[in-house]
Amino acid sequence: MQLNTKETLRDLAWILAGNITLAIGVAWFILPNNVLTGGLAGVAIALEPLIHVTPEIVINVLTVVLFVAGSFILGKKFAMKTILSTICYPLFLSLLSFLAAHYIPADTFIMDKYLATIYGGALMGIGVGCVFRTGASTGGMDIPPLIINKYTHIPLPSLVLIIDALTVLLGAAVYGLQAALTGILSVWVSSFMINKTMLIGGHDAKNVMIISEKYKEIMNKVHERLERGTTILEANGGYSNERKPVLMVVVTKKQLPELQHMISHIDAEAFVIVTDTNEVQGLGFTYEEEL
């Protein structure tokens, strides 16, 4: 019960932090500079010249409508987590817009279009990523990617990028091609930051596959000098049709040069494959052995 309470409080903190960050990006960078972008902000800006309704009102209304639709499709658990964003995001957005209009000098957030695009997109991506980490949503245009992800399992950052790009193209008919291309830059920055934010807490590492006749000697050295575990995989050579063991070891980036030097010293003809690993969990990475 204590663990569940701790996890719930942690999720609430991520959701609140994400919504505040998202609202800052929209209220202080995107809306004041009329930057076409993804999400409800992009939809609201694209529709403003057509329906003559302020973007804040459009965002607040669509946030509630899409929340209701998402609750039916994604279920009760999603609704319970997302309702906080549905309440907080419009509240934060209205509050920050009010502060910008009445208590902050008028030209404070009027800036170069590209600066607003980059920094606004980055803040939006960080905010959405914080909320996505909990399995919830900021509401609005984040809900369609979650629905599609449920049925297709396409990665969320990719879906957000696609849908946001379509939103920007919608605005091209109103603001022109140059504005749309600038908006796509904001969408890319936002998608990049969503991906990076969702990986917070993970550990970057290198996954190394080693094929060598001296794999046992290499394995012992890895255990002894690097204090890393190893896994022996059974493989079959495509050309020789011979069975060969493949030694797999995951090391930190700092340990990779030492491992490469060790392998070359033991077997200069060893075949080595090194790949990036975005997240590693387990002994030696996310927790240490208790003595």
UniProtKB/TrEMBL annotation:
Q: Cite the entry's keywords alphabetically.
A: Cell membrane, Membrane, Transmembrane, Transmembrane helix
Matching CDD domains, A to Z?
A: YitT_C
Recorded topology in the membrane:
Multi-pass membrane protein
Superkingdom per UniProt: Bacteria
Q: Give start and end of each DUF2179 domain.
A: 228-282
Localization terms from the record:
Cell membrane
Q: Which GO terms describe its cellular component?
A: plasma membrane
Keyword Acetylation in the entry? The reply is: no
Question: Where is the chain membrane-spanning?
Answer: 12-31, 57-75, 87-104, 116-135, 156-177
Q: Which Pfam families match?
A: DUF2179, YitT_membrane
User: Which named protein is this?
Assistant: Uncharacterized membrane-anchored protein YitT (DUF2179 family)
